TrEMBL record:
<feature type="transmembrane region" description="Helical">
    <location>
        <begin position="632"/>
        <end position="651"/>
    </location>
</feature>
<feature type="transmembrane region" description="Helical">
    <location>
        <begin position="182"/>
        <end position="202"/>
    </location>
</feature>
<feature type="transmembrane region" description="Helical">
    <location>
        <begin position="517"/>
        <end position="536"/>
    </location>
</feature>
<feature type="transmembrane region" description="Helical">
    <location>
        <begin position="657"/>
        <end position="685"/>
    </location>
</feature>
<keyword id="KW-1133">Transmembrane helix</keyword>
<comment type="similarity">
    <text>Belongs to the resistance-nodulation-cell division (RND) (TC 2.A.6) family. MmpL subfamily.</text>
</comment>
<feature type="region of interest" description="Disordered">
    <location>
        <begin position="714"/>
        <end position="733"/>
    </location>
</feature>
<dbReference type="Pfam" id="PF03176">
    <property type="entry name" value="MMPL"/>
</dbReference>
<feature type="transmembrane region" description="Helical">
    <location>
        <begin position="548"/>
        <end position="569"/>
    </location>
</feature>
<dbReference type="GO" id="GO:0005886">
    <property type="term" value="C:plasma membrane"/>
</dbReference>
<keyword id="KW-1003">Cell membrane</keyword>
<feature type="compositionally biased region" description="Basic and acidic residues">
    <location>
        <begin position="723"/>
        <end position="733"/>
    </location>
</feature>
<dbReference type="InterPro" id="IPR004869">
    <property type="entry name" value="MMPL_dom"/>
</dbReference>
<keyword id="KW-0472">Membrane</keyword>
<dbReference type="InterPro" id="IPR050545">
    <property type="entry name" value="Mycobact_MmpL"/>
</dbReference>
<protein>
    <recommendedName>
        <fullName>SSD domain-containing protein</fullName>
    </recommendedName>
</protein>
<feature type="transmembrane region" description="Helical">
    <location>
        <begin position="274"/>
        <end position="296"/>
    </location>
</feature>
Length: 733
């Protein structure tokens, strides 16, 4: 493979104009597709095989239109102290809001508006009422005039002293990252300048990464409605694609400069950089793709689509690194090097870097080799302590109660809780597949359960063979007591009584995540173990990589629990409301962090393997690996942390939590596991680290990541004019 990638990189360098033109054309085509496509929606949400989904499907069959995927809004009105919403003045203002929604701007997208005085949507003390509005389209598809009409519907009432707030998903905004993402890219640029000492070399990874992400995200936007992709899919693809895109280009550029430092011609340096570092990029990218595509094991369409979309962006990042990066290096010329080195590298003097001096990576590796047990224990115990909060992990899905206190959605949530009880924000919908007698007996049974505040009379369909019952729990939607109530209703019912609704869907979603975590982990780690065994020709190195990953991801989850569930340092990280950790967080972190963790494993240990194969002793090979790779791996980790941390400025709680979790996980994995635990373990293992049974060595194909076959091929070409001519023909083909 190294020989093929060498030819690919050298060919891209020589035909840089054509390569650059092709990538720009792809970017323009994807951009035009995104510009002409309809705005992405929130994406459909389903949990195949769950009781909540079965009830929803039955509801859609027996009550056509009731389960329509249109947006909902609740306009909550609270009277001033000492007044009631049933008083003539407040009542008139409430009815004006109802009339404005029915006949004003945006009325064409209104499916129904419920007058609170007709449907008994007034609290017992008369202080609070709410208007329910149902729309024909999802919140993301609402026209601007409709959204503005909803936002301004209570302005006149507020002027009279009423407190009017709006909840529901009709005003759910597209997740915004604000300036955080820009700050992350700016930090990445600074790190690149410090690492390379050249503005051009620093800008090159940023430029190519942005082109790759632009193609990936534009393609996702263009296909969003066709493939029913959620509006957060592009955000997550941007987050992952930008991080790996910068890192992959960084490793290629760094190796290119090292090859120039050995006195090679520019096209030869580009070919060797892609043939060696490019091999590591390919396998690092494969581990990320395996982790993301493996999310399909969970059998949740939403998560599967997110994983495939993000994996597609990673594939584009790999292709950009292998082709566009060497092409742009051809345009950059001498400007990829610091000013003081240009003359030495391109002139007649001694090649810079001919004698490698000890650097920070070398000194750190030697320190670890002297005290491997101490470093290993410190790393494992430290991460273990940080991981402790995972034992108290509570999972759920956020609702309006998790919104910032300044938002109207959060204030509407609080008003409904105060006026009607905490459980009113998460009603349960019980669907009965039977006649009125079965529905009535179901109502009587549910009324006798603890934790139930109210049960509505059954609503039968026209055929009289199905009914819907609404149950108001005593506790808030995310409460464990509400979850116990759902299970109690289900356990006491037969197959013809099903519980659904947003709260029940969240409970089933969390259970689905829990059930899928271990199978998913086994699949992803197993496949990546085989892949790393191919790369390193070792059994213990992949095993160490997998165990180190588990340690870092559990520690990162512990940090997420401490900040987002317990509230530790919450104000520092912009967490306004603590609560359960999102159900998809553990499995999503396992998928993404595993792929990213293997990036650093491949980039760092590949250099060690290369040195060991070329005759160095195990300890010296570790030092050599750190000498050449530590600086670049540290820079790559800082860049990735900055990119992920930039998404913590997002308005969406899910994006904020994922950004924090990934940033912390990369920090733990890069600086504690890969830079400390890995060299300590390799030092203790010695030659055994690279042991592979002979029978297994014969079975496994040789992918030659360290470039040994490439080295022999180039030596033969150099000794044979015919071989060199043949190689040039292959490059030009």
């Amino acid at each position: 493979m190294a020989t093929f990638l060498y030819r690919l990189g050298r060919g891209a360098f020589r035909r840089r104009g054509l390569v650059a033109l092709l990538w720009v054309a792809l970017l323009l085509a994807a951009g035009l597709g995104a510009a002409s496509a309809a705005a992405p929606t929130s994406g459909s949400f389903s949990i195949p095989g769950s009781e909540a989904q079965k009830a929803f499907d039955l509801l859609d069959e027996r009550f056509p239109g009731m389960a329509a995927d249109g947006a909902n809004a609740r306009i909550v009105i609270k009277a001033p102290e000492g007044a009631k919403v049933t008083d003539p003045g407040p009542k008139a203002e409430v009815q004006k809001i109802v009339s404005a929604l029915k006949t004003g701007p945006g009325a064409a997208e209104i499916a129904s508006v419920a007058d609170p005085y007709e449907v008994q949507a007034v609290s017992q003390d008369g202080s609070t009422a709410y208007i329910s509005a149902k729309y024909t389209v999802s919140g993301m598809e609402l026209k601007k005039d409709t959204r503005e009409a909803l936002k301004s519907s209570g302005e006149a009432a507020k002027a009279t002293g009423l407190n009017v707030q709006i909840g529901g998903d009709a005003l759910t905004p597209v997740p915004e990252t604000g300036s955080g993402e820009i700050i992350g890219v700016a930090v990445a640029a600074i790190v690149l300048v410090i690492t390379f000492g050249s503005l051009v070399a620093a800008g090159l990874p940023l430029l190519t990464a942005i082109i790759g992400v632009g193609i990936g995200v534009s393609s996702i936007t263009a296909l969003a409605n066709v493939l029913d992709l959620g509006n957060t899919t592009a955000t997550l693809a941007t987050m992952i694609g930008l991080a790996v895109g910068i890192d992959y280009a960084l490793f290629i550029v760094s190796r290119y400069r090292a090859e120039l430092a050995e006195g090679r011609e520019r096209d030869e340096a580009a070919g060797r950089a892609v043939g060696t570092a490019g091999s590591a990029v390919v396998f690092a990218g494969l581990t990320v793709v395996i982790a993301l595509v493996g999310l399909a094991v969970v059998n949740l369409p939403m998560l599967t689509k997110m994983g495939f979309a993000a994996a597609g962006t990673v594939v584009i990042a790999v292709l950009v690194a292998l082709t566009l990066v060497p092409a742009v290096l051809g345009f950059a010329g001498k400007m990829v090097l610091p000013a003081g080195k240009k003359s030495r590298l391109f002139g007649k003097g001694k090649p810079a870097g001919a004698e490698q001096k000890a650097n920070g990576g070398t000194r750190w590796a030697r320190f670890v080799l002297r005290r491997p047990v101490m470093v290993l224990l410190a790393g494992v115990i430290g991460l273990g302590v940080i991981a402790f909060p995972v034992s108290k992990l509570e999972m759920g899905l956020p609702d309006d109660g998790a919104q910032p206190v300044s938002t109207t959605q959060r204030q509407a949530y609080e008003l409904l809780s105060d006026g009607f009880g905490p459980g009113f924000n998460g009603p349960l919908m019980v669907v009965v597949d039977g006649d009125k007698a079965l529905a009535d007996s179901t109502v009587d049974r549910i009324k006798g359960l603890d934790g139930v505040v109210a049960v509505t009379p059954p609503t039968l369909n026209k055929a009289g063979d199905a009914a819907v019952i609404t149950v108001i729990p005593k506790d808030r939607p995310s409460s464990t007591h509400t979850e116990e109530l759902v299970h109690e209703i289900r356990d006491g019912s037969g197959d013809d009584v099903l519980v659904t609704g947003a709260t029940a869907m969240n409970i089933d979603f969390s259970q689905k995540m829990n059930d899928a975590l271990l199978p998913y982990l086994a699949l992803v780690v197993g496949l990546a173990f085989l892949l790393l065994m191919l790369v390193f020709r070792s059994v213990l190195v992949p095993l160490k990589a997998a165990l180190g990953f588990l340690l870092s991801v559990v520690a990162a989850l512990g940090a997420v629990v401490a900040v987002f569930q317990w509230g530790w340092l919450g104000s520092v990280f912009g967490v306004e409301q603590t609560g359960p950790i999102m159900s998809l967080m553990p499995i999503f972190m396992v998928g993404v962090v595993f792929g990213l963790a293997m990036d650093y494993e491949v980039f760092l240990v590949t250099r060690m393997r290369e040195a060991y194969v070329h005759g160095e002793r195990p300890g010296q090979a570790v030092v050599t690996g750190f000498q050449y790779s530590a600086r670049v791996v540290v820079a790559a980790a800082v860049i990735m942390i900055a990119v992920f941390a930039g998404f913590m400025g997002a308005s969406d709680q899910m994006v904020k939590m994922i950004g924090f979790g990934l940033a912390v996980a990369v920090f733990f994995d890069a600086f504690v596991v890969r830079m400390a635990i890995v060299p300590a373990v390799l030092a203790l293992l010695g030659h055994k680290a690279w042991w592979l049974p002979k029978w297994l060595d014969r079975l496994l194909p040789n992918v030659d990541v360290e470039g040994e076959s490439l080295r022999k091929h180039l030596e033969e070409s150099a000794d044979s004019p015919e071989g060199l001519d043949k190689d040039r023909e292959l490059v030009n083909a």
